[in-house]
Every structure is written in C-alpha cells, then in structure tokens.
Amino acid sequence: MEWMIWIGALISLAGVGGLVWCIWLALQARRSGLDDAAMRERLQRVVVLNVAALGVSALGLMCVVMGILLG
C-alpha cells in the first residue's frame, strides 16, 4: 500500500498549496483597498476556496493513514 501513501501525500500537498493560494488571495484583496461590500464579497469566495482546500488536504491525509494502516 505504499502507492496509497504517495498518492495521499500528493493530494495533501495540493491541499496545502490551495491554502497558500487562499492566503495570497486574501492578502491581495486586503491590499486592493476595496469598499466594505466588495471586500466582503471577495472574501466570501476566498472562504469557499479555503474550505475546499482544507477538505482536499484532509482527504489526502486520510489516504496516507489508510496506506499506513493497510501496509
């Protein structure tokens, strides 16, 4: 089950990359100087992406744990 560990690690790495991307988007929105309504709308999109990236990362970690337990 070594392949499952490596696939899970790659999925987790993609999720962490998504989290870094969300941080970058939030910082970019903060620096843009938008009014409150536009800032709220943009950050709501970032929150959705953040939750999705966190879910992908958790899924990858589950694959890693399953690979360790089955291997």
Can you characterise this structure?
- The protein has one domain (2-70).
- It has 71 residues and is an all-alpha fold.
- Helix content is 92%, strand content 0%.
- The mean pLDDT is 95.
- Helix 1 runs antiparallel to helix 2 (36-70).
- The protein is built from 2 helices and no strands.
- 7% of the residues are buried.
- It is rod-shaped, with a radius of gyration of 16 Å.
What portion of residues belong to β-strands?
under 5%
Mass-distribution shape: rod-shaped
SS-derived structural category: mainly alpha
* Uncertain spans: none
> Mind describing the biggest β-sheet?
none
In total, how many domains does the architecture comprise?
Answer: 1
Binned, the helix content reads: over 70%
What is the N-to-C succession of helices and strands? HH
Keywords: Membrane, Transmembrane, Transmembrane helix
Could you give the topology of this structure?
Layout: H1 2-31, H2 36-70
Helix pairs in contact: 1-2
Which terms summarize this structure?
mainly alpha, membrane, rod-shaped, 92% helix, single chain, transmembrane helix, 71 residues, transmembrane, 2 helices
Task: Please sum up the structure shown.
The protein has 71 residues and is mainly alpha-helical. 92% of the residues lie in helices and 0% in strands. It has one domain (2-70).
